[in-house]
Amino acid sequence: MDGEVTLRPVRAGDRERIEAICVEVYEGRDHVPRMLDRWLADPSASFQAGELDGQVVGIQRLLPIAPGIVLYHALRVTPEARRQGVGRRMLQQAVSDARRLGFREIRLCTEVLSTTERKAADLFESEGFELLAECASWKGARVEGAELPQLGQASDVPALARLVESDPALAAYGGVTADWSGPLEPDAEHLARLAGEGLVRIGPGGRSLAVLRRDWLPKLAVTFLAGANSSLEELLYGLRAEADAQGVSACWLLAPENHPSTVSFGAVGYDLAHDEKHSRVYARAL
Q1: CA distances for 234 relative to 2, 147, 215, 222, 260, angstroms
Q2: Which of 12, 132, 180, 211 has the most CB atoms around it within 10 Å of its CB?
Q3: CA angle at residue 193 from 97 to 187, to 5 degrees?
Q4: What is this structure's pTM?
Q5: Per-residue pLDDT, 27
């Protein structure tokens, strides 16, 4: 394979080839095959296949997540094509497309556990993406019988937005949530939207909050935490109870290791799931 990379919309007939690529890249542990039907039916996103010499060798997706901001994700390229620079050319075209469509910023999240993932992170940085946050995972096993956390309501949003704005956790997160479906600023507008989706939990007195990640069953995951001391600890323990109520094994916290409340994580039964930071949030101005 030594030709030019051609990008086109992914088609339903590409399913078998895409599944094979995902097996090559992630050894069958990839979420992309499960999302194909939804993504193929979503007209709001640009879901692209990269062809080389007439064969699909990669995919990528651009999803608008806020006015002027687009999420870049699902880059998958066969190992052979990666060695020929196909991933870089696909990424460059995606950046060009986003700029042409009038977006002012492109964001992405990536893991950095495997060699392939670390090489992808190197690629993003070499193409001008700046690191916003580097997160680790804390795991809190489910507990039975504890009180569930309170759901955030629209009426709570003004006070929660003030809490977030004044909390040092905001800077630790790089000013955004560590949400792979859309790393966005947790301002009043976004918090109101998340509360409307049932994704905000608050601690006693409204002095702490947790933002949950969409569509991550069979796991319960938190993408942003603010607050401190007993209010946050009660909220975190309640999330372990919510994991039990949802029938999942644990609650996962995605947070920077310099989060100001990591002592509270350990105090209520959350342990680092990895020995090192394993996910990153990047952004690039267009």
Answers
A1: 58, 9, 24, 15, 16
A2: 211
A3: 80
A4: 0.91
A5: 77
**What is the pLDDT, as a whole number, of residue 217?**
57
Q: Which of 215, 242, 55 is nearest to 150 (CA)?
A: 242
Average pLDDT over residues 262-268: 96
- Are 274 and 136 within 8 A, CB to CB? yes
Taken in order of first residue, the domains within the chain and their CATH numbers are 5-103 (3.40.630.30), 137-284 (3.40.630.30)
pLDDT of 277 higher than 70: no
Q: Please give the average per-residue pLDDT across 166-183, as a whole number.
A: 96
Residues 5-27 have pLDDT tens digits of 999 999 999 999 999 999 998 87
Q: How many CB atoms lie within 10 A of CB 53?
A: 11
Q: List the one residue out of 146, 123, 143 whose CA is nearest residue 284.
A: 123
Q: Which residue has the tokens 């030019």?
A: 4
Q: How far is CA 203 from CA 53, 172, 272, in A?
A: 56, 20, 22
> Residues 255-286, buried b or exposed e (16+ Cβ, 10 A)?
bbeebbbbebbeebbbebeeeebbbbbbbbeb
pLDDT tens-digit series, residues 56-66: 999 999 999 99
